[in-house]
Amino acid sequence: MTVSPADFPPPFDWREFVAEPTDPADERIDVGVLIVGGGPAGLSAAIRVGQLLEEHPEVAEHLGDVPVAVVEKGRAPGAHLLSGAVVNPRAFRELFPGMLTEDMPFRAPVVREGVYFLTPKRHVRVPAPPTMWNHNHYVASLSEIGRWLAEKAEELGVTLVPETSARTLLVKGTVERRLRRRARAARALEEALAEFERMGAKLWAERARTELDRVGGRQPRSPGELTPSERRIAELVAEGLSNKEIAATLFVSVHTVEVHLSHAYAKLCVHSRAQLARRLAASKYGNRDLLAAGGAPGASPEPGRRGR
Ligand SMILES: Cc1cc2nc3c(=O)[nH]c(=O)nc-3n(C[C@H](O)[C@H](O)[C@H](O)COP(=O)(O)OP(=O)(O)OC[C@H]3O[C@@H](n4cnc5c(N)ncnc54)[C@H](O)[C@@H]3O)c2cc1C
pTM for this one? Predict the structure, then answer.
């Protein structure tokens, strides 16, 4: 009698591995093909799907506003890929037919290799086993490969959604804009912009600003819409305290103060401490002129630099 392990599979319930969505339906981003994990495998898969969709635009059309997306739990593709590597270029040649090896993300070809048996005091060179032959392979950094593949994927229209909440918000804002839900788009994009400005990510901030312009510019919100923390910090700013003093008063880090403050700036569309104070005073005393004077749309300096 033949006994095969495949005849005795362990019990499997997909619910143990796949969670049901918990966000409200109108806050979800619908994607055509979702790839989880922005490592070499996930990014290559996204690139291949992107290439196929370029050949079949009618299929891409069916897949909606975000035909292909990659979610990555690192802050950027490549951020969680740490190993140095010796790479066989075969998969790259298959994925990018006709691309020159010089254009691939490798540092140098392998020109010499050796395998050694190590003892506490000596080393003995041994013949390399076939699995360790690396002739015609290349030395590379895996995180560089990840970043390079991510760029190629983006060129093909793949949406990358790394852990950075700002980029998720940017994607959400862009999708909301395309669905003509202006207020929601503006809210997501304002938060994304504030976060990018705080991180000093200028190019991303520029992208968020461009998207915001497309939804008709930044819409100032009322101080009542600030979160309790943002409101408290904004009030202390209005009282004239520096970021350092606020941090000491509230027993939080200066960084936390800067984050909340940048969100408050973005929400109220102000770009100075004086404007912020005026907006708060105006809302307190119901002065419409002051409210209107609160802030015009425009680039704001980083809140961290505003502290005295
Ligand atoms: C120490 C070491 C040395 C190595 N040296 C070499 C070498 O010299 N040459 C070589 O060719 N290969 C080498 N490898 C193997 C190579 O790194 C792997 O084959 C390759 O990284 C596998 O790619 P992958 O995309 O399948 O997985 P990974 O590289 O592991 O990528 C998975 C990605 O998914 C993300 N992720 C995981 N879970 C989630 C989740 N739930 N949600 C969102 N994102 C998620 C991770 O952050 C990661 O970015 C080495 C590996 C190690 C560990």
Answer: 0.62
